[in-house]
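Priority: medium. Attachment 1 of 2:
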């Protein structure tokens, strides 16, 4: 008889969340109920022979994909909306809470016509959108660049580390911000930790936050600086919330 895994008791498969970046974000949107459009199924450069039809919005096959054990998802720069993979009707299938993270100048997944459009259209779910101003597709730095990637590729004509980095934001800074918000989001929706709400109840624009403390460290009435961010550090971010029905 084998001994139990060291993971035994640490994970609860009945109470899980998804986190995905780019195409992983695309998968998260589909898994959470966002079925694809007929247009995307028929794209000549897309999945061959209509195989994407298994995820068509409203189809029996896509409707059966839902898993009640998955309570929420976080999608970083989900790809697909800017090329017509979803529309306002198919995104109504998302019912569970979702958090979206994106750069405001994402030129791969799109922002206004991409991640932000998904966030707006998922009208049957409580959802939030964290925006890193002037960040591109690598917003929130889903992974640090391996040392081996820091070289110029003659064939591709760019430094391979650009697959991981951002021209404006520091990678470690983006990772810290992502960890902060994902921890709060999953703490709220997977652990029902009411203390996490204070990290998610924010003035929409971080630059508008006011740091105002008394000498004893308590907040003055005008204090609305983003919780969890030291003074002068909550800059260049937006956090917006929409509820089901909005």
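Attachment 2 of 2:
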């Amino acid at each position: 008889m084998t001994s139990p895994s060291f993971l035994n008791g640490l994970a609860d498969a009945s109470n899980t969340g998804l986190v995905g970046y780019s195409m992983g974000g695309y998968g998260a949107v589909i898994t959470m109920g966002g079925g694809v459009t007929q247009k995307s199924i028929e794209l000549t450069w897309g999945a061959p022979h209509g195989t994407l039809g298994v995820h068509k919005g409203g189809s029996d096959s896509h409707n059966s994909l839902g898993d009640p054990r998955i309570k929420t998802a976080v999608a970083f720069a989900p790809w697909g909306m800017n090329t017509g993979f979803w529309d306002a009707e198919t995104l109504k299938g998302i019912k569970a809470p979702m958090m979206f993270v994106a750069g405001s100048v994402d030129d791969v997944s799109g922002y206004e016509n991409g991640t932000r459009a998904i966030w707006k259209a998922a009208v049957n779910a409580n959802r939030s959108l964290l925006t890193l101003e002037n960040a591109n597709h690598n917003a929130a730095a889903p992974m640090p660049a391996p040392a081996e990637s820091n070289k110029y590729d003659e064939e591709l004509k760019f430094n391979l580390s650009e697959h991981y980095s951002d021209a404006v934001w520091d990678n470690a800074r983006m990772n810290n911000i992502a960890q902060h918000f994902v921890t709060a989001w999953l703490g709220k929706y997977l652990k029902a930790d009411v203390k996490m709400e204070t990290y998610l109840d924010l003035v929409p624009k971080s630059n508008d936050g006011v740091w105002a403390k008394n000498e004893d460290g308590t907040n003055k009435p005008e204090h609305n600086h983003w919780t969890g961010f030291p003074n002068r550090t909550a800059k260049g971010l937006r956090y917006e919330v929409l509820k089901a029905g909005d």
